[in-house]
Amino acid sequence: MDRQGGHASKRGGEERTWIIFFDESGVSLLPEVRRTYAPRGLRQRLNWKRASMAAALGYHATDRARGQRLCFHLKPGSYNTISLIEVLEHLNTGLVPES
Asked: Can you tell me the distance from the alpha carbon of 28 to that of 77, in angstroms, rounded to the nearest whole number?
């Protein structure tokens, strides 16, 4: 329907509207466990790191010719609330350029 029918807000309405899917995930970079030369009965010390990734996939709501946008951010360690907010703020300026 047209904008007068009241469905414009359900579609996204404006020309600058993007639909964004955002997700974050973490992985443990655990080394492969093998036989070592440690004395019998003593276990080896394993040190491993964590890596995290946040990604966003964007689609333009009204103009498919603009294509899709993919943006991702890698971080050693884990995300917390503050670092995810920083990623979202950076995403706001980088993923969807002003037309």
From this structure: 9
Residue count of the chain? 99
Residue spans of the domains in the chain: they are 16-28+47-99
- Best CA proximity match to 18, nearest among 65, 63, 50: 63
Contacts of 89 (CB under 8 A, 6+ apart): none
Detail the DSSP E strand segments found in the chain.
18-29, 49-60, 68-76
Q: How far is the C-alpha of 83 from the C-alpha of 75, rounded, in Å?
A: 9
Mean pLDDT in runs of 10 for the chain (99 residues)?
48 68 87 70 74 89 80 89 90 65
Q: To which residue do tokens 């509207």 refer?
A: 17
